[in-house]
Amino acid sequence: MSRARRRRERVLEHLTELREMPLGGGPAPAFRERLRAELVAGALGERPEPAGRAAGPASGPAHRRPSRRRPLLSQLAAVGLAGAMMVSSFATYQAVPGDTLYPLKRAAESTFVRLSTDDAERGRRELASAETRAREVASLLGSSSGGPLVGRTLKDMEKSTKSGIERLERVEPRSPKIKTFAEDQKETVKPMLQELDDSQLAQAQDYLDYIDGLVPPE
């Protein structure tokens, strides 16, 4: 596996962990320690020997070869920059509708979905986006600017849900993920009903009716 591909997979793993964190929470200590270790290891690694520069026979007095390590200041700057980028990524994934970083969060989600290797994976990621929208609605309720944003977020939640379900049903008709998703979403959405206005309530009820139909009667 190439170095670039390994880096890409590590980034996707970190993004997945960040997405699964609850809104308003912080990264787990184990995640922070692992990330710090990777950043330090990458910044302090030596540069590879340039190709084609093989050691030849000594001619004349031996000269001390200069160190190929990057200067300490550059190493620290690289660690600091990488750390700042991950902090920014964390802040982005904790953003809610109306926040400055929220459009960046949605763009990152769309990119994450497009990087899926097949329809099953893409469907699961779209359902993960729907779960994120549900948590965002819960966080918006009661806020002074939540009114129109709640209805818009409910609509986005429904759109992601239907798209993800259609993909999963096409490739995995009996996927247990569908039942689990529907049950989890009901637990998240139902407590919100008493806090919604009439139009929002109608949206939420229609959504609950839809996901109720995803779970076959026992």
From TrEMBL:
Every DUF5667 domain range: 95-198
Please indicate if the UniProt record lists Membrane as a keyword: yes
Feature: compositional bias, Low complexity: 51-61
Q: Which InterPro entries match?
A: DUF5667 (IPR043725)
Q: Which residue ranges does UniProt annotate as crossing the membrane?
A: 72-93
Give the residue ranges for region: Disordered: 42-70
The superkingdom of the source organism is Bacteria
Write the record's keywords in alphabetical order, separated by commas.
Answer: Membrane, Transmembrane, Transmembrane helix
S-adenosyl-L-methionine as UniProt keyword: no
List the protein's name. Answer: DUF5667 domain-containing protein
Originating organism: Nonomuraea terrae
